[in-house]
Amino acid sequence: MNRSHKILHIAAEAGTIILQSGGETYRVEETMLRICYAFNIKKADSFVTPTGIMISITDQNNQTISLVRRINSRTVNLEKVCMVNDLSRSIIPKKLTLDCVESKLKEINSTSGHKSKVLIVAASFAAGFFTLVFGGSVQDFLVSLVIGAIIKILSTALNNIRINEFFINSLGGAVAALIALISVKFNLGHSEDKIIIGSIMLLVPGLAITNAIRDTIAGDLISGISRAIEAFFIAIAVAIGSGLVIKLWVIAFGGIFK
């Protein structure tokens, strides 16, 4: 692999890590172009969508090469986004070599992030405190702690076997509604609505909505619309899951909310 090809692949790898970790479209393009120009590429162009990266470079010999990379999975790991962003900005000041950048990218990509137990505890407390924010009682808070942990365990397990996100969010909404209704039925909780609302906040596509707005404002209309549609379908999935459980409960027991 000659130098130009290596630069192209390194830039694409950096962009892939950012996009898979929840980074904005403009940040992916900016980072890839910064890496290319840091290694004296004559001209570079990139086009990024939430599911794909296209980058083309022209070297000093006027040879143009391109690369297309498909993005199949996306998660949220802003630490990786920050690390790749910092790396791209430090190439010129620190005079990093291609091999050094490639090695650091592999190291960043292999970073596992927080342990599952930490994420489960964080999700549990997030659901609990959201319930309090929406006016829930201490009983509702305790029920939401359990629901938050269960939702995180289920979503992690299903993501590991690559189950469709729509199904995962539907199941999460259904679990939140079912446990909330059962807890109030047996006087373990006080308000079904507060528990459900607080718990499903874990599933709300906040990052997707934020990136959709940011990309649209930046002029990346395709990415902005794609992320907005993604957020819309996540919301629909959560509504279907929780709504179906509530409807079945009403049919079976005649009513809910006090």
Please tag this protein with its features.
single chain; 258 residues; mainly alpha; 69% helix; 8% strand
Q: How would you characterize the overall build of this protein?
A:
The chain is mostly helical. The chain folds into 2 domains: 3-109, no CATH class; 116-253, no CATH class. Helix content is 69%, strand content 8%. The protein contains 10 helices and 3 strands, in the order ααβββαααααααα. The chain has helices spanning 3-20, 25-38, 78-94, 98-109, 116-133, 138-160, 165-185, 192-200, 206-217, 221-253; strands at 43-49, 52-58, 64-70. It has a 3-stranded antiparallel sheet. It is elongated, with a radius of gyration of 22 Å. It starts with a helix and ends in a 5-residue tail after the last helix. The mean pLDDT is 90.
Ordered list of secondary-structure elements with their pairings:
Elements: H1 3-20, H2 25-38, E1 43-49, E2 52-58, E3 64-70, H3 78-94, H4 98-109, H5 116-133, H6 138-160, H7 165-185, H8 192-200, H9 206-217, H10 221-253
Antiparallel strand pairs: 1-2, 2-3
What's the number of structural domains?
2
Poorly predicted runs of 5 or more residues: none
Annotation field: number of helices:
10
What is the arithmetic mean of pLDDT?
A: 90
Could you give a short account of the major beta sheet? 3 strands, antiparallel
Termini distance?
A: 69 Å
Rounded to an integer in angstroms, the radius of gyration calculated over CA atoms is: 22 Å
Helix content: 55-70%
Order of helices and strands: HHEEEHHHHHHHH
- Share of β-strand residues: 5-15%
Shape: elongated
The overall strand count is 3
Specify the structural class.
mainly alpha
What's the arrangement of strands in the largest beta sheet?
A: 1-2-3
